[in-house]
Amino acid sequence: MNELLRRLLFLPEQASSFAADVDRLHYFVIITTFIASTAVGLTAIAFFIRYHRRTEEQTTPHIEPPLWMELLFFGVPLSFFLLWFFIGYREFVRQQTPPSDAMDVYVMGKKWMWQFAYPDGPNAINVLRVPAGRNVRLLMTSRDVIHSFYVPEFRVKKDVLPGRYTDQWFNAVTPGRYQILCSQYCGTGHSLMRGEVIVMKPQDYEDWLAAQKHGLVTKQDGAPTGMDAAPPLGNLVAQGRRVAADEGCLKCHSTDGTRHIGPTWLDLYHRREKLSDGTLVDADEAYLTRSMMDPALEVVDGFQPVMPSFQGKLGGPEVAALVEYIKSLRSDAVQTGPSEGPAYAPVRVR
Amino acid sequence: MAESALPAKELHQPEEHGGRHSAVPYFVVWIALLGFTALTYFTGTAHLGPWALAIALCIAVIKSGMVALVFMHLKDSSGATRLVFATSLVFMALLLFFTVADVATRFRLATPAGSPFGTERSQPAGLLEHELPEEE
Amino acid sequence: MRLSESDSSALAGAQRHLSYLEDGTTVMSWLNTRDHKRIGVMFLAAVLFFFFIGGVFALALRMKLLQPGPFLMDALSYNRLFTLHGVVMIFLFLIPAIPSAFGNFVLPLMIGARDVAFPRLNLASFYIYLAGAAIAIFGMVHGGADTGWTFYTPYSSTTPTQVLPILLGAFVVGFSSILTGLNFIVTVHTLRAPGLSWMRLPLFVWGIYATSIIQILATPVLGITLLIVAVERVAGFGMFDPARGGDPVLFQHMFWFYSHPAVYIMILPGMGVISETVCAYSRKNAFGYKAIALSSLGIAFVGFFTWGHHMFVSGQSTFNAGAFGILSMIVGIFTAVKVFNWVGILYRGAIAFRTPFAYICGFLYFLVFGGMTGVALATTSLDIHWHDTYFVIAHFHFIMVGASMMAFLAGLHYWFPKMFGKTYPEGWGLVAASLIILGFNATFIPQFLLGNFGMPRRYYQYPEQFQALNVASTAGATLLGFGLLIILIYLFIALRWGPRCEANPWGSKGFEWMTDSPPTTHNFDEIPTITQMPHDYRTHEAPGVIGAA
Amino acid sequence: MPHELSSAAGFEGVPEELIGHHFSSLGRQTEAMRLGMWLFLATEVLLFAGLFCGYAVYRFQFPLAFQESSRHLNISLGTLNTLVLITSSFTVAMAIHYARTDKPRAAALCLILTILFALGFLGIKAVEYAEHFREHALPGKYYAAEAVKVPGAAMFYTMYFLMTGLHGVHVIAGMSVLSYILWRTLQGRYSSRYSVGIELGGLYWHLVDLVWIFLYPLLYLI
Fold first, then answer.
1. Which residues form the domain of A117?
2. Residues of chain B contacting residue D210, judged by C-beta atoms under 8 Å apart
3. Cβ-based contacts of B49 with chain D (< 8 Å)
4. C60 or A267, greater pLDDT
5. What is the C-alpha separation between C250 and C258, in angstroms, rounded?
6. Which CATH superfamily is domain C35-513 in?
7. What's the confidence (pLDDT) of residue C49?
8. How many domains does one find in chain D?
9. CB neighbours of C21 closer than 8 A, spacing ≥ 6?
10. A337 vs chain D: nearest CA distance in angstroms?
11. Would residue D9 count as lying in a domain?
């Protein structure tokens, strides 16, 4: 019965623990509605036939409904509606409050891609791996506009808001690959902002996690979109700090605001720099990347053009990590940049 | 023009504004308004803590009630106009109630960074890396 | 000397038999008119024009969705298309359609008044509507916004496309809606004919009165919300800017505080038209008149309590979702009561199956189907799967295009003889009605299934498994478009060359049929005294002028 | 014919075009215009309701920032503004009273006083705005005041500028309505028999004052 109705209504697979309950309420509502509306339809058609107009001068009696009939018209639908509501709302509350033993995964929606980060390490683009049969809680935030994390097979959906967290949870029952869709309009790439949830057997998941830890898996999970390929291990800011130390940037650039051989990186992001030839430039990502690759082109006023070019020495991910690191260096003034995502930190909330 | 029954809910005509209209009520209300402004000034600047908002709003409601009833002649105007003014206030309260109720009962981390019960993110960055105190 | 009643009728004596159409045929007499009937006809023309434009956008969208991949247009123009389809259809067609076009024309006739309370304000509201529409068209021509008709921030405040003109256009059209609502409320309160108590008002007047309450109380909140987004785009600081602690969900609260009552602005006048036409064509008194009238007011007031059901998954708190869920169930009851009472009207009536009656059947079917899916959506747990998918699109199109447009067409055909004194071809009417009902089902039932299947809305490219249903839906859409085209054609022909008809072709005892059609400029020679309920068919006596002094 | 409520004699000398052809009596039309005006005032109340709703939400989320920032507003200028507006509300009420008791000259004088008070209000507001611009206490991303560094302070000033800005626009609109009425009063248009025009103008000005009565404590005091 469940399978027949599910297939009849084009409902996707019931791959999470509460999908079956949701669909059961769905069937209850649809069947009652069909019965009630066919009954109303048939009475209407019966009246059409029984009381069609016979002569032009026909007169009709003045009929007022008795009070009991009006109360019936009011009471019967109300009781059904409230019954559905209580079943539905109990289910809704169960879906909205994640169990405390849930495994946390941090989701960051960014213009047209999903980025997943597990608290103890690996993060991935557009591919979320979860063990089957385990409660998984998603702590989600957005880097720019509102997105919405939607997996039809799990019957889960929650908007992802910039500047704050929203959370939702699911317990994927059957292993397999399920599509993640963005269901809140977010621009031209809204329909391409798709990801994948790979539900694995618990043992496979443990092996994958261990492999990720040791960095053996060089291939980045899922096709990295050209815009923002995050390095495999650790979050971007930590990665940027490591690259800055290794490449010797910190020998000339201070990160605490003091003047050094090069301009300080504190509050550098979106600062209006006066160049040696007097023009003003806004220190955004483009400027930072250009000054890494061709430092002599735009020298800040009052500094010597001694910086070596890093053309060919720094790959795309390292440059992105450095830019993220520079963006995170901000004095305690009120935030002036765009709403940045939260740093990934284990957050214990009952 | 035959005399005929009034429409059932006829708007009663306000009494004719002949010469007997006195200006005394306006003066009284003016003085009262000045008095209440002084009252709200002192209660406002004296730090009363959580009660400040409630007191200030009560005084504001009293003042606006006086202006509406006397200055705007709501006292002697028809039922329909009073109903209109009352419903607009009811619907303003409705909008405020549900919106603030939403913000108040939201998932704790869903409030923005920087609000007192906001995310840990609002603390200085250094604190994040330490392990959080176990008891929540 | 004061203008006594007898003088005014002597004054009108000269143009006694000139209908409002013949009373001055220069363009200026139309553009500078104070006559509520002419303003109604001008609104009808403007509204139909924008309905046509919105329809063209809809067909373009459906064409693109034939293919899952890029086809016919790029992502940005697709996004602009569905935004403009939404804005044009809602702000420029559905909200003004029945209240401003038919309400303007028929309301004064129904309550025995010569005109609305503020005729100049009525004309001003028409020109404000045109100004708003012009600003919106200016925005469309310059590319148009790609934010969706809901303008959710922070996308709407950061996208580089032409959002500002569309925002200001909607803001200005909102004023026209407020002024129309204000005019009608004052008219119903102060200009009722003697003997016309509140419980004798025709049900259409109840529908328009309830709609005007919503227009007055809800539109200003939309005004301030769009204004704040416009300020955020222009001046750079805004209430909803997340980087400064602003709350995008607050925008959704304030937007839906207007937009949910707005969907009742769109459906309540339709219900008013249906109450009138069901009584007229089944020649029967309104079964449960008090229940239908009071549930119109009920929908108007309780409609303000339920806006949160648009935001169940948008980060709103669980408590609020429950509160809004229960209140949404209560507002659903009023519609159910109305449907049962409409079916009750048919009992022991004398039903004549004409074109408007075909639209009534369509209306009832779509209202029940759409309404029940609305109730299903309001059970919060089902909404998680359905929100922002094609299920929701099918739900509101069932109510908007199904019920509200069917009522608009029923009213158009029912009052066509009253407004223009011509009859439309009955045969073609029935053909077009069945085509539309068939086409509509073929368009939107596949979309319900798409929603169940999990296809999100506003998708330029969609996964392959959704293609079959999308193709079926597009096929239905072309049939629907074709059906509407037939109506346009035969109504235009009937207008130009149609046979003149007698004053009351349907033999209806609605109050608006008391005057001859098309009515004279001053509606009534003598203001009638109303002594009984509308649609009282117990006596056969020709439905002439009742109780004229 | 509807029952003639007010005595027929009371309408001599009323200009012809004042009674719309569709209204049966002047009393009914005045009642209609009052109801229409009150409906318009309801829309104004709901217009400001949007901003009050924003204020309530952000005050709830950033209580510290709102208290700190409101202490840095110039309370004395705010109180002075409240007194100015209340007195202007009083003078417009007196203007209506004089118009109704056939003293058009006194009514005109009161209207001029009201307009001057309104100008005074805008002047004081301009002084406050200048002060905010100097100490960079500006809304949204322009906020860089040293005095209050708590997150959410930018949101207070966003609400402050939005609310006082919209209120200022309404003060300017009210002044133009009052000057139109002043011109009509000087023409001797209003008398004890026909004074609905000045009443409606007065109603609009009282509403502008009502909104400020709520703005003042919310922004300046708590």
1. 103-213
2. 64, 67-68
3. none
4. C60
5. 13
6. Cytochrome c oxidase-like, subunit I domain (1.20.210.10)
7. 95
8. 1
9. C420, C421, C518
10. 9
11. no
